[in-house]
């Protein structure tokens, strides 16, 4: 049996997922990170194992656990992978809609279903990375925001269902965070450092949830920067 605790983190090669993975490695976890393009990640550690998998393809998810030799020891599942396309509803292609649905709804549900038996055995933990978009009306965010609202409700359902088996479920609702999430959008965080969160700050909050295990649980938490400021990108 492995001496390390074992975690599975989606979207682990960059941004928030990479910061969470690095934090978990620091806590002694063996981390299996899921990434569509693991070759782009420069971080290396003997406890960090990136696996190439396109989570928008359900067939690849079905084969994923067969590539994790100690899958039965997984005690932490972090649903972090995501992307967003913002546009008027008639301008969103069916391909982009399917990609978002598969990544934000189908993939977390399939992975959770595949791993819950082990998480129950290990009295483990599931963390969902939500978004304030799932709580508010988001201009041109019709699909993305609706999917986030859906995964918020799924996390709440799981909290109620799994707590009797000592599986802890957390929903982390994120506000504006400075990552490459905004690379292909027409807006981005303001330059003011008080107007955005950093991936390492998100990882710090999750670390507190993991190490402060005192017999009670925080099922849901929203993290927001001090100021609300966005800016539109200059059109070239």
UniProtKB/TrEMBL annotation:
Family (UniProt): Belongs to the short-chain dehydrogenases/reductases (SDR) family.
Transmembrane segment boundaries: none
Domain of life: Bacteria
Protein name per its UniProtKB record: SDR family oxidoreductase
Gene3D superfamilies xrefs: NAD(P)-binding Rossmann-like Domain (3.40.50.720)
Coiled-coil regions, chain positions: none
InterPro entries, per the entry: NAD(P)-bd_dom_sf, SDR, SDR_fam
Classification via SUPFAM superfamilies: NAD(P)-binding Rossmann-fold domains
């Amino acid at each position: 049996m492995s001496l390390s605790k074992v975690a599975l983190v989606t979207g682990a090669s960059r941004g928030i997922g990479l910061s969470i993975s690095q934090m978990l490695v620091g806590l002694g976890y063996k981390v299996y990170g899921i990434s569509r393009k693991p070759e782009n990640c420069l971080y290396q550690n003997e406890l960090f194992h990136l696996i190439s998998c396109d989570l928008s393809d359900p067939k690849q998810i079905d084969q994923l656990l067969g590539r994790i030799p100690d899958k039965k020891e997984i005690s932490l599942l972090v649903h972090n992978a995501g992307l967003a396309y913002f546009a008027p509803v008639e301008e969103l292609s069916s391909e982009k809609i399917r990609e978002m649905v598969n990544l934000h709804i189908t993939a977390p549900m399939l992975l959770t279903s595949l791993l819950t038996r082990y998480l129950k055995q290990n009295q483990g933990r599931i963390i969902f990375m939500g978004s304030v978009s799932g709580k508010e009306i988001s201009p041109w965010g019709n699909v993305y925001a609706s999917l986030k609202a859906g995964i918020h409700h799924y996390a709440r359902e799981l909290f109620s269902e799994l707590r009797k088996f000592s599986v802890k479920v957390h929903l982390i609702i994120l506000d504006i965070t400075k990552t490459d999430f905004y690379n292909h959008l027409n807006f981005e965080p303001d330059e003011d450092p008080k107007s955005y969160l950093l991936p390492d700050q998100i990882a710090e909050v999750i670390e507190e949830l993991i190490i402060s295990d005192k017999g009670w649980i925080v099922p849901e938490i929203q993290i927001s920067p001090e100021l609300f400021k966005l800016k539109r990108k200059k059109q070239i």
